[in-house]
Structures are given as structure tokens and as C-alpha cells.
Amino acid sequence: MKFLIIPLSLIMMAYASRFVYKVIMCFFDVPKKKKIIVSVAGAITLFAICMFVGGVLLAVAAHMLIFFLMADVLLQVFKIPFFKKYDPTSFRYFKAVFSAGLFLFAIAMTVWGSFNASDIQIKKYSVSFEGKDYDATKVLFVSDIHAGDSNTERICRKLKDTCNTEKPQLVIIGGDIADSSTSLENLNLFADVFSQISKNIPVLFVCGNHDIMGGDGYGAETIIRTLTSHGVIVLTDEVFEFNGIDFVGRNEYYSPEDDSRRKSIQILAPNVKTKATVVIDHQPKELEKLGEIGVDMSLSGHTHNGQIFPIGYVCSLLGINEMQYGIKRFGSNTAIVSSGAGTWGMDVRTQGHSEFVIVEIK
Ligand SMILES: [Fe+2]
What we know:
CATH topology of the largest domain: Purple Acid Phosphatase, chain A, domain 2
Shape: elongated
Order of helices and strands: HHHHEEHEHEHHEEEHEHEHEEE
Strand order of the largest sheet: 1-12-2-3-4-5
CATH architecture of the largest domain: 4-Layer Sandwich
Strand content: 15-25%
Bound molecules: fe (ii) ion
Structural class: alpha/beta
């Protein structure tokens, strides 16, 4: 994914610096040629600073890009009806004030987003499976931890506290515990917490797309080996039975063309019609199909509910994920999608909230 971050950041920086430059230069008359040179130089400088400083500044840049894009559109709309009859200078001043305001708003939103990301909420759901025989079970579902230097200690502490206060009977980690920036040290800190929890209750884990790609200097095998050696039950297209319920941990989804790397639910859980069955799939996929074949519940993460405003709304509008967030019924399947405990790329969340999910299966 690193190869995508660099060109994307460069585009964002180029656009943002172009706009900042336009705002400053609207007070002066500068030849077009010079504008291009200064814009490119500004983009490279901003990009270099972002790469050096990292996450939060990248978040400011992302919000700047979004707001400047919105501003560009709005300014074009305003320009036509309100400024057509005025001289160009009035529009220049308006544009400068408007853009400076948006720039400050982008910074304020990022600062708020970093507080929002660190505030992990407990989301509770209560479900029951019709016509199936099983014992009531309380599940703690945690997805998308994306362990990093800024969130590892916080999420580890919250995990221990939540297990003590909520007293779940089963903990499920729904993938993306790591990403390309996760150090082995941080992964081990989580493994130690899981080790403590697994002495009392089972801890299940399925791989997410980022786990498959591995952490900082190590691969998916290391993640699986580390967790397994600390008492975690890693489900790779496998079933774990608990309280009369089959918990089916699926392999990570790749693409519609190449989904041969994971078995079908009918093969993994042949008694799905008569036995209580919960599917754990990092990405919310085939939710309707699960409901047609008799699955009772699916647990997923992956979407982060957008994480950065307004990405979640855009994804929902374009139907990028089968389900973006929350709880929804598809036939027999009660699908739950979590916004995740951590964040990706930057420790900032300006859409949705960070959460742990408690599911009471009654
Ligand atoms: Fe994720």
C-alpha cells in the first residue's frame, strides 16, 4: 500500500499548494509561468514536510484537499451569480478570506479528529437466532486495530478494562491488527494482552487485508505465529465451536475473480441450516448470500466507516462496500460491521468513531 500513499500524497499536496498559492497571489499580478514554478516548488516542499512529520500532518493535508476541492466548486458557483457584476478584485478578496477560513477549518477538524480517534466507544447489540439450539453467549468483537506507536498502549489498556467490566465469554479480533507501519514490538504488546485474556476465555482471530500484506519488516506468517504462540486461535477457513454455535473464521477475500483461496460457507459449515452459525469475515462480503443459506450472524470490519470525512459518505453513495457500518438484516443473517478500534494511515478520525463491539447472543 506504501506505493499508493506517495503518489496520492503528492497529488493532494500539489492541489493544496496550488490553492494556497492562488489565495496568496490573488493580491498580486504574477505571470502564469512563474505561478506554475512556485506551485510545483510548494507542492514538493509540503510533501517533503508531510513525509518527514508523518500522520497528523498528512491528515491536515487530506482535509485541506477535500475542503479546497469543495471550495473550488463553491467558488465557481458563487462567482457566477454574485460576482459577475463586480470587478475582479472583490472576488479575489472574497476568495482569499473564504479559503483562509477553510484552511483553518481543516486544521481544527484534524485536531478534533485526533481526539475522536482516541476515544474508543463501546457499541452494544443484542441478537437471537431463530429456530436454532445454542447457549446465550456474550462476544467482544474488535476489528481494525492497526497497531501503531500512538494507539497500541491505549487500545491494549481498553481491551483489558473492557474484558474486566463487560466480562465477555469470547473475544474475536476481526482482522487488521497490523499494517505496514506496525512494529514487531507493538504486535507483541497486543499478543501479551491476548495471552492474559486467553487464560480465561477463548480469543479468536481472522486475518484482514493488511495482515496478509504483513507488518513493518515481517509477513503474515509472523503475525499468525506470534498470535498462536500467545494462545490466540487463528481461524484460516476454520470453525471454532462454542456454546453450541459454530464460529466460522474465513480467509481474507481477494477479488471476485480470485476467491478460490477460501472455501465456501457450505463446505466450512455443512450444518448451517440447522446449527447456529456465525461468520467472521474481515470484509463485509456476500451478506445476502449468507442470509440465504442460513447463516445467523456475520461480523466484519474493514470499512472504518470512512474514517476521514467525507470518504464514508462517498463510499456509501457509490456502494463500494455491501454495508458501511452498523447492523442490518439480510434474510437469516444479522450482519454487523464495525468502524474499528484503530485508524489507518493517520491517527485521526473525522467520520464515525472508534469502537469495540459487544454482541449479546440471547
Ligand atoms: Fe482496516
